[in-house]
Amino acid sequence: MKPNIFFTADHHFGHANIIKFSERPFESLDHMNEELIKRWNERIGTHDTVYHLGDISLGKPDFTKEILDRLNGNIHLIRGNHEGAALTYPKRFESVRDYHELKIDEPENSNGKQKIILLHYAMRTWNGSHRGVWQLYGHSHGTLPDDEMALSFDVGVDCHDFYPVSYEEVKEIMKRKKWSPPFGDRGL
Length: 188
Prior knowledge:
GO molecular function: hydrolase activity
Order of helices and strands: EHHEHEEEEEEEH
Strand content: 15-25%
Keywords: Hydrolase
Pfam family, one: Metallophos_2
Helix content: 10-25%
Protein name: Phosphoesterase
């Protein structure tokens, strides 16, 4: 069976104040940490691929290592602005990057691929944005309004009931966007 691909961001494990800042529905820091682990592992299997778009943990390195060891999947980290503890355990990640241009086999597309730009931060334009390339981001914790005219959106946990989002779910969201190529077929 082919592994599934997931995207997520902004877990902020070990960060008590994020409950208040982002109005998360958790009673305590332990409740949040345990629920985030549970929801991650409900969706992600051992062999699945996860692109985490930053801010995994604000806890200390030993705490962060324990959390990372409990999460399923092969994790690719796109660095956010709170990665100090996670970067003390680099062997847990398949890759660590600031920015990544991911290509996924997509038979529905004329070229057989879907390109996705992965960055912790939202961009207004990106490489290939006028050609149907998607951009996924985190950082904003659902505070940015979704732009239905752009093939981008926030994959952070605050926007998705604290679950990672699958490639198939991303694809369905992108199909509902009102984006069209700015140069018609000439742009492709």
